[in-house]
Design a protein that fits this description.
By secondary structure, the chain is mainly α. The protein contains 15 helices and four strands. Helices cover 62% and strands 6% of the residues. Helix 11 runs antiparallel to helix 12.
Length: 327
């Protein structure tokens, strides 16, 4: 879902931590070159209004708390909290700080309920936390106590977002994912994804909704050993919308690999890497976003080559490259 998020539109400059004297960073010293890894934060003065300072997402400190205090004091909007959290997730591979930043936003109801904040931005934070906890739950054994805790936290955040904006496509996607994580029997996940993709109201859902539904639908099909159905679905998705992002080609590679067509699997993974490079030429923000997508593609490439050639050294080298890109 992060792949479809808008890139920051501010310019490069000194990192926050390299210039501790915030009061010296006047608008006259604003960055002059475009860059996607800089956040512009407006801080309030006791007198004479406000001024801008800048956060370099590529040079973040280990502990995000110094930012969070200032973010609250200066009523920084939810969209920038989300960008800061993404910075820790994408540039520092720190999922814990990603979640703690978003949790801190909601820790003070008097702050998070500020009427000046845009509803859709608040829902974005809620959905990000819901999906984060659902991902943690998916990694737990069914018998683990943590799994139920993560599922409960996920449902709390998603329901809170659903109270603000009702009837979004992501509500159906989330329901399907939740059923998958709980390993519920039946065809319920597929029915929820179909509501977004094929239902009578499907034309009102966003591209983000539909991309999420496509990928979750395919994961459901692959988990039920139906690679041919997954390929049929993905080809139709690309025919309808050729601009779907690179991660869709990774899913195609997974389906080919499961069906035993290792040559086409490798071609799909290679296409994923090509598309990532094309998008990264436009913005370094894409490079950070793509680390997980490229890592998955490299791992898939290594697996499909091994399945074809049984070349163990090549397989190990490919998996090492994938790991180093996204530990």
């Amino acid at each position: 879902l992060m792949e479809l998020d808008e890139t920051p539109s501010v310019a490069s400059g000194p990192s926050w931590q390299s210039r501790r004297g915030f009061e010296d960073m006047e608008e006259a010293n604003a960055p002059t070159q475009d860059s996607s890894h800089i956040l512009t934060i407006r801080l309030l003065r006791a007198v004479n209004g406000s001024f801008d300072t800048y956060v370099d997402l590529q040079s973040l400190p280990t502990d995000p708390r110094e930012y969070l205090t200032l973010f609250k004091q200066n009523q920084v909007p939810p969209s920038l909290w989300y960008k800061l959290a993404q910075g820790y997730y994408l540039y520092k591979n720190d999922a814990h700080s990603f979640a703690s930043i978003l949790e801190e936003f909601f820790s003070d109801t008097s702050f998070s309920s500020n009427r000046r904040f845009v509803d859709v931005e608040i829902v974005t934070l809620r959905n990000a936390l819901a999906l984060h906890y659902l991902q943690l739950a998916a990694g737990c054994p069914d018998s683990a106590a943590d799994k139920n805790h993560y599922i409960q936290q996920s449902v709390i955040h998603f329901n809170a977002g659903g109270q603000i904006i009702r009837g979004s496509g992501l509500s159906f996607v989330f329901s399907g994912l939740l059923q998958q994580v709980k390993n519920m029997e039946g065809n319920y996940p597929r029915e929820n994804y179909d509501r977004v993709l094929k239902g009578e109201n499907s034309n009102r859902f966003t591209l983000t909704d539909k991309l999420a539904a496509h990928l979750c639908y395919v994961s459901f099909l692959l988990s039920h050993a139906s690679p041919d159905d997954a390929l049929t679905h993905l080809r139709e998705a690309l025919r309808t919308n050729p601009s779907l992002p690179a991660v869709v080609r990774t899913a195609i590679g997974m389906a080919h690999n499961m069906s035993g067509d290792f040559v086409r699997a490798q071609q799909s993974y290679q296409r994923t890497l090509e598309l990532c490079r094309e998008e990264e030429d436009l913005s370094p923000w894409h490079a950070a976003q793509h680390s997980a997508v490229k890592s998955d593609a490299l791992a898939g490439l290594a697996i499909s080559r091994y399945n074809q050639t049984r070349d163990v050294p090549s397989y190990l080298q490919g998996m090492k490259e994938a790991y180093l890109l996204n530990p």
